[in-house]
Design a protein that fits this description.
By secondary structure, the chain is mainly α. It has a 3-stranded antiparallel β-sheet. Strand 1 and strand 2 (about 50-60) form a beta hairpin. The chain has helices spanning about 10-40, 70-90, 100-120, 140-160, 165-175, and strands spanning about 45-50, 50-60, 125-130. The chain is elongated. Helix content is about 55%, strand content about 10%.
């Protein structure tokens, strides 16, 4: 017999998601404001010699400087991604075992919106973290949210959820939620 999964109150989950989304976007925007105030027009701040530094850069493209000057493309893609995340967030069953999915979606959305704000208001994204040691492209806090959350999302889906969990998610997304009165499949 399967152990019943406790459900989370949907409105509380949505409210917390919005709260953390706002906090993450605010943190991203504050770090970018600090980068503009303290790094723009200055020499890089060396944190670990030949390894890591704070280096101000105005990125007019995507990650790794791709698609320079394609602002309208990024704005459209961001709107589509946000719509998809919102749709998935409210469609995935409100159960504790799926909480990690919602947290990761909030991080991805916050990162997307953080860079979206820059693109809309300034026509470029402020980047300031630079790993000189591996010559990694300059990035920001929003990029960290998106990259880490996406990697974790893939790992969680591949290694944490069983086939029936993925099936339950897909059924919910398609709008075929199992009624509480229906017996559990064995």
């Amino acid at each position: 017999m399967k152990k019943k999964e406790k459900k989370i109150f949907p409105y509380m989950s949505i409210g917390l998601g919005i709260l953390f989304f706002v906090l993450f976007v605010t943190l991203d925007q504050l770090t970018k404001k600090c980068a503009v105030l303290f790094l723009k027009g200055q020499d890089p701040v060396i944190l670990i010699r030949n390894v890591f530094q704070l280096y101000y850069l105005e990125n007019h493209g995507a990650a790794f400087g791709l698609l320079q000057g394609r602002r309208s493309v990024f704005i459209c893609i961001t709107v589509i991604i946000l719509a998809l995340i919102i749709y998935l967030y409210v469609r995935i069953p409100f159960k504790r075992k799926f909480r990690v999915l919602r947290i990761l979606m909030v991080l991805i959305a916050a990162g997307a919106v953080g860079n979206f704000i820059d693109r809309v208001t300034q026509h470029y994204v402020v980047d300031f973290f630079y790993f000189e040691w591996i010559n990694f492209p300059v990035f920001n806090v929003a990029d960290i949210y998106v990259t880490c959350a996406t990697i974790l999302l893939v790992l969680v889906i591949l290694f944490r959820f069983r086939d029936e969990d993925v099936g339950e998610i897909l059924s919910s997304i398609r709008g075929k939620r199992k009624k509480e009165s229906e017996p559990e499949e064995k």
